[in-house]
Amino acid sequence: MKILHIVAGLSGGGIGSLLYNYYINMDRNVYHFDFAVNSDGKGFIESRFKELGCEIFITTPLHDDFLKCIKQFKNIIKNGNYDVVHCHTGYRGIFPLYYAWKYNVKTRIIHIHGAYEIENLRQRMIRGILSPVSKFIATDWLACGNTAAQWFYGKRALFSGKVKIMKNAIDIRKYQFLEMVRKEVRDEFGLFDDFAIVSVGRLSLPKNHEFMIKVFEEVADKIINSKLILIGDGELDNKIRKIAFKSKCRDRIQFWGIRTDIHRLLNGMDLFLLTSTSEGVPVALLEAQANGLHIVSSDSVTKEIQVSDLITYVGLTEPLSNWGEIIKELHYKIINLGNRKDVNKKLSESGYEIKKEAQWLSKFYIEKVHS
Q1: Is domain 172-349 given the CATH code 3.40.50.2000 in the classification?
Q2: Tell me: the pLDDT tens digits for 203-262?
Q3: Domain 2-169+353-369 in CATH: superfamily?
Q4: Between 20 and 30 A from 285 (CA), which of 66, 223, 299, 346?
Q5: Contact in structure between 280 and 256 (CB atoms under 8 Å)
């Protein structure tokens, strides 16, 4: 069965990493993934997919050359003989969905990975026009969680069962905390007695790193041995680095770029920080919980992901001092009561175990193609 995934990029995290985890847990003698990547740069995880035999088509970004982009989508789908076109770009995937319909691809999936995106008036108008058409062309609707499904498809579609939830699942055991690895990581990066606060995610507007640095400035005044470690890259990389350089805490903010060993690095951390303005179901918080890390997250993040008591939610409109006090209290708790808790059974029971979810996706594809 040939499946073409339409994605905005194949970086080391997010959708690319999610699809990689699904694919390596599926029968690759039955299912074959290809990717049409609407990006102008090579993704960090592309080489891994190529090693598995996937073909990667790089298409011109839509905003750079509209006509060239849709012509590329047309040719890929027309000549690909695909059984499924699985579009991970929401309503922005209207053109590949259209060509999938035109060239008789039986299963056309629209998949939403975010919720309550920050949009200006023009973007809201475009979404209002394209979304109904995209949903009409698609044969199947998927979402990463209930919050995202309700935002994009509506409450009626969610509760009627028309929308299916494809979980942002992970290999839970891979992220299990190991004391020996913690020591290795802390020695390797010179953390020693530092209180290491980590954030893993794309350096982009929704992740709200500018606000995060302000939060850390509050924390740094209260916890003198604290450090902020940012893992990931993105379109705002240079801007965030400049903001960090101007910060009074610039010597305590580190950029580690894209890493493929997040499961290892989390062992060396003490607390996970997320200040996003909008999210679907962030994989990073599942990974952090699997590692037993305490998490401080903005209340813009869905409560669906709270499968343990490790997450503390704070409002983005609350004073920065509140964020600082909450992290200070957690610091005391972590130092005095131990900084890890095993919640992996709860994660598995909540449907976030990749092996089980890969079986679900395999069955979903088979049923749709052969129905």
Answers
A1: yes
A2: 989 899 999 999 999 999 999 999 999 999 888 999 999 999 999 999 999 999 989 899
A3: Glycogen Phosphorylase B; (3.40.50.2000)
A4: 223
A5: no
